[in-house]
Specification:
mainly alpha, two-stranded parallel ribbon, single chain, 141 residues
């Protein structure tokens, strides 16, 4: 099975965003070489999908281009299209796997700073949902 990833906003694929355009042979062959393509591109008019099909792509799964506020956790929404392949993701807990070096660095770092340590992650993945910087500054005054 061929595996790969290509950025579509690099200027190599402008024809794939226009209906009935002439598709570059090299890129058409590239897309056609995959057993399965999973796309999360915003494609409301199905132009990208149609162009992939014109290249000979037979197995295409399209996922959500945007995360809906009322449709469950983002990880669930992004995993839902995989159900078409018989892959049912039930555990959405994030996992990290620190190396031995990472663990040693953490031990040394934690031993060198005063306690307690407070970690804050002010981002949400969406500018609209981020709390304004001024509020964070006020919180810690």
């Amino acid at each position: 099975m061929r595996k790969g990833c290509i950025r579509l906003n690099t200027g190599r694929s402008p024809d794939f965003s226009r209906a009935n355009s002439e598709l570059p042979t090299e890129l058409a062959d590239y897309f056609a070489s995959f057993d399965l393509i999973v796309s999360y591109l915003y494609d409301p008019d199905l132009i990208f999908e149609s162009n992939l099909r014109r290249c000979g792509v037979q197995n295409l799964i399209c996922g959500p281009a945007r995360i809906a506020e009322s449709a469950g956790h983002a990880a669930q929404q992004l995993a839902r299209p995989m159900e078409q392949l018989g892959i049912n993701v039930a555990d959405f807990a994030e996992r990290i796997f620190p190396s031995i070096e990472d663990r040693e660095f953490a031990r040394e770092f934690l031993a060198s700073v005063s306690q307690p340590i407070i970690a804050i992650h002010p981002g949400s993945g969406s500018h609209e949902k981020n709390w304004p910087l001024e509020n964070w500054i006020d919180l810690f005054r």
